[in-house]
Amino acid sequence: MHSRRRFLLSSFSSLSATWVATHWPGALAAAQHAHNSAQSATPPKFEFFTPELAVEADAIVARIIPTDETPGAREAGVVYFIDRALATFASDVQKVYIEGIAGVQTRVREMFPGVDKFSLATGEQQDLVLDSLEDRAASTDRPFAPRSLAPNFFETLREHTIAGFLIDPDSERRGNRDGVGWGVIGREREHTFQPPFGHYDKDYPGWQPVRKDPEK
Amino acid sequence: MPPSEVKYKTSDEVDFVIIGSGAAGGVLAKELASNGFRVVVLEQGPYLKEADFVHDEVKVLQENLLTNHPELQPNTFRKTPDAKAELQRAVAYGRCVGGTSVHFTANYWRFHEIDFLERSKVGAIPGTGLADWPITYADLERYYTKVESEIGVSGLAGASPFDPPRAKPYPMPPLPVKSCGVLFERGARKLGWHPFPAPLAILSQPRAGRSACVNCGFCYGFGCEVGAKSSTLASVIPQAERTGRCEIRPNSYVHRIELDGAGRATGAVYFDEHKNTHLQKAAAVIVCANGAETPRLLLLSANKQFPNGLANSSGLVGKYLMFNSNARSVGLFEHSLNDYKGFVASRVLHDFYELDPQKVGFYGGGTLDGRFDYTPYFFALTGLPPETPRWGRSFKAALSHNFTRTMEIHCTGTSLPVEANSFSLDPELKDAWGLPALRMTYKDHPDDLKLAHWLTERALEVLDAAGAVKRWSRPINEQQFSVHLLGTCRMGSDPKASVINPDHRTHDVRNLFLCDGSSLVTSGRGQPTMTIQALAFRAADRITALARRGDLRS
User: Fold this and answer.
1) Which of A11, A210, A212 sits opposite B226 (nearest CB)?
2) b/e string for B365-390 if b means 16 or more Cβ within 10 A?
3) Domain match, B350 and B305 both
């Protein structure tokens, strides 16, 4: 819990006294803020989804990053992340979600007559439905890179699911609950690290110059 | 230590108004204010502080906390001047106090002698405007040294046998090695090449009241919450403010440089955050708005006297845009590198800085660095091998296995200056303030693409030699988006063939100066910010000398 605060406090030990003296008030405010948001994240309440839509969205994200030996999108609370996203930074794609989820239901009934909802289909059926919706060309690239101007439902939901699974758990986004997403990929929860960092640098002997003239 | 609260009235004629507070503007503000001048810096973005620098990828990377907003400031793009430009984000740059230096990667090696003299050395290249700079590496050496000490650069002098001469060692040792650096070094040395510790504008030791890097892992794209990344926000801007003569005025979007009847600049016209218009009067104007916005501002400032745009008698404002050719190869290793910890680049090599066109079949040169610059979210979107399923159990398994075991080799190199590659004003599209939007025209010179492919082959060789269990390259396409915005108001001695003179003074307006990526004559081999800042320190000396002898008010 509150690892953001832990970051700030623990990082002081490696910082100069001058830095602490000049930055303490801002850092303290940030820590307090993180503390508040961590506490306020506890009772989940939907801001955009109806309970019915939330059930369907949750069923879809659980196929994008499934629960197996390790936690998946469901345990990370991704549906809450998406709900808040649709009420805040992604409010421009609310319609994409409403129409997209309706489209998924239509597709379910077309492909599997008798199955009424995505959430009632078997895992295998659900994957076949999602397969039919994937559109790689509509996906995003690197940070800042141009994005598709016409959002595709599946691709948008896929991106949101990944973001909700892996976002900084101490942010205000309600994603990556308890840092489970970072746990799955092996990212430690801290925000300050000391070398050695990994397997290959732990026995590094230090910089050794090579005595050799370059061929110019 | 609160910053000085000096405030100037817009009707006060200050000595200098500087447009943009980024890599160059921050340096000029500090230098000129320290030299006794009264300075107003107009920054279009907000004044954010370290407490605002969160690790929330959505807020920072998608909501553009630190960068220009594509919704408010749309761009258009086309490959060639005969095509119609379409709506598309074409540039990303810092839009906050400190500019792009707030979120950059902080690779800080110096340009080499060759970068200033390529035209003389290789001759004309058809289809390009390749030219020598009017200054040399020797002219800039002391200013590179100044950048290293005043901004704060960590590195190891003499570690690269290709380094140009330097007067002093780095003021701080290099940052600790990362596993990507060890592997890069291992592979490159097996191949007989000369990797060296990456020089970075990140503090490896506490310095000047700033913390050393705490290796948080949210570096590229993010602001540094402990002030270890040597942005102008963390380094020179507080110093500028402490002189008591420099006002940093955020949320001030300059859209015209005002001239009097005699053709002298009288100040800068800007929108405040409520879209009210003001004119800040100044004896001289220095534009440091970056390689996209500087030419755009000159074009927006067209008037009867300068119908083609201010300081554009050469017709070259906005032309010869260069990005730096680039490519990436990715390697997967047996054990965990945990390269998400720490800064981005760990080892660099300059063995291919000058390639022999006779041998390789194209003109250019470049560098490789061993790095990891993915946040968890962007790694999941783009860091896995191309054939990996994009969702479901196998996707999750690959993500889980690869995140800690992946590194990249980033290749950067020359872009040749092609006149048609340019920024101009879109004839139709407007931004949220009703101003013509930025239009980019760009098509890589064929040699730039050949270079990217060639460097990628070398990167794969390094990964193989380092023992990667799997490696691949990201596709190399013609570029239509960039963060390196270079060459668009090039420096030169001939007013017909350049926009500014070696003092950064525009050939056409005596008290108007330009200094940023737009000043560059050639692209270097990537990582241009250090050179931009060396130019800014030098420009400050030149402009101070001109001002002291009364040359700016005559």
Assistant:
1) A11
2) bbbbbbbbbbbbbbbbbbbbeeeeeb
3) no
Closest CB to A142: pick one of B87, B209, B378.
B378
CB contact under 8 A, B211 and A168: no
- Residue B405 sits in a domain whose CATH number is 3.30.410
Residues B332 and B357 in one domain: yes
Which residues in chain B have their CB less than 8 angstroms from residue A158's CB? 390-391
B496 in the same domain as B510: yes
- A128 CB neighbours in chain B (<8 A) are none
Chain A positions touching B404 (Cβ under 8 A) are 185-187, 198
Within a 10 A sphere around the Cβ of A147, how many other Cβ atoms? 15
Chain B residues close to A216, C-beta within 8 Å:
354
Q: Which of A146, A181, A186 sits opposite B89 (nearest CB)?
A: A146
Residue B397 belongs to what domain range? 164-217+325-413+443-481
Q: What is the CATH number of the domain that holds B99?
A: 3.50.50.60
Q: Closest residue of A to B92, CA-based?
A: A144
Instruction: Tell me the three-class secondary structure of B234-275, residue by residue.
Output: CCHHHHHHHCCCEEEECCCEEEEEEECCCCCEEEEEEECCCC
- Please tell me whether the interface predicted TM-score (ipTM) of this complex is above 0.85: yes
Q: How far apart (Å, rounded) are the C-alpha atoms in residues A170 and A189?
A: 9
Same domain, B40 and B140: yes
Residue B288 shares a structural domain with residue B390: no
Instruction: Please identify, among B481, B496, B530, the residue that sits at the C-terminal boundary of a domain.
Output: B481
Cα B416 from Cα B181, distance rounded (Å): 30
Instruction: Tell me the pLDDT of chain B (554 aa) as tens digits.
Output: 455 689 999 999 999 999 999 999 999 999 999 999 999 999 999 999 999 999 999 899 888 999 999 999 999 999 999 999 999 999 999 999 999 999 999 999 999 999 999 999 999 999 999 999 999 999 999 999 999 999 999 999 999 999 999 999 999 999 999 999 999 999 999 999 999 999 999 999 999 999 999 999 999 999 999 999 999 999 999 999 999 999 999 999 999 999 999 999 999 999 999 999 999 999 999 999 999 999 999 999 999 999 999 999 999 999 999 999 999 999 999 999 999 999 999 999 999 999 999 999 999 999 999 999 999 999 999 999 999 999 999 999 999 999 999 999 999 999 999 999 999 999 999 999 999 999 999 999 999 999 999 999 999 999 999 999 999 999 999 999 999 999 999 999 999 999 999 999 999 999 999 999 999 999 999 999 999 999 999 999 999 999 999 999 76
Q: Can you give the pTM of this predicted structure?
A: 0.93
Answer whether A200 sits within 8 Å of B481, measured CB to CB: no
Q: How many domains does chain B have?
A: 2
